[in-house]
Amino acid sequence: MFAIKKLIIIALSMFATLACASETPQISQQELLSALKSANHNIVVLDVRSAEEYEDGHVSGAINTSHDTVADNLNKLSQYKDNTVVVYCRSGRRAAFAENILAENGFKNLRHLTGDMNGWLKADLPVVVGKNVH
User: Fold this and answer.
1) pLDDT tens-digit profile of 23-72?
2) CATH classification of the domain holding 45
3) How many domains does the chain have?
4) Which residues span the domain enclosing 11?
5) Which pLDDT band, with edges at 50, 70 and 90, does 21 fall under?
6) Can you give the pLDDT at residue 16?
7) Angle between helix 2-23 and 93-104 (nearest 10)
8) What average pLDDT does range 4-12 have in this prediction?
């Protein structure tokens, strides 16, 4: 019985996370690329995949904070509260989880990268390979 309750709680939690993610406005790949070219853009790109995934290829300038460490890194991330924070992962699930945590902690200008990294790669857009320099 305990296992069933636990599964129900997990399912409801995931549903709530996905429901909140649908509230996060999207930014297209082309909109992001154009915005990043602006000299005084106020955009921070947050890659919430694992460090290994990030090192295999990420959007140029993206900061890597794994989705499961976002809550632990809120002090570091809080410097970006006044920025537009564009969040992505591989396919969207982890980004939704991170967006929920950020929104609950006062981040008001969140955007979700349309298509996440799968879409970025499918569109054959440029990636940077290696560790984060931030």
Assistant:
1) 899 999 999 999 999 988 999 999 999 999 999 999 999 999 999 999 99
2) 3.40.250.10
3) 1
4) 2-122
5) very low
6) 52
7) 80
8) 59
| Structure tokens belonging to residue 61 | 């300038």
Catalytic residue among 89, 98, 101, 117: 89
Give the residue from 103, 127, 109 showing the smallest Cα distance to 117. Answer: 127
Query: Distance between CA 92 and CA 103 in Å, rounded?
Result: 16
State how far the Cα of 95 lies from the Cα of 47, in Å rounded to an integer.
8
In a domain, 130, yes or no: no
- 132 and 64 Cβ atoms separated by less than 8 Å: yes
129 part of a folded domain? no
Burial (CB < 10 A; 0-12, 13-18, 19+), residue 85, is buried
89 carries an active-site annotation: yes
In a domain, 134, yes or no: no
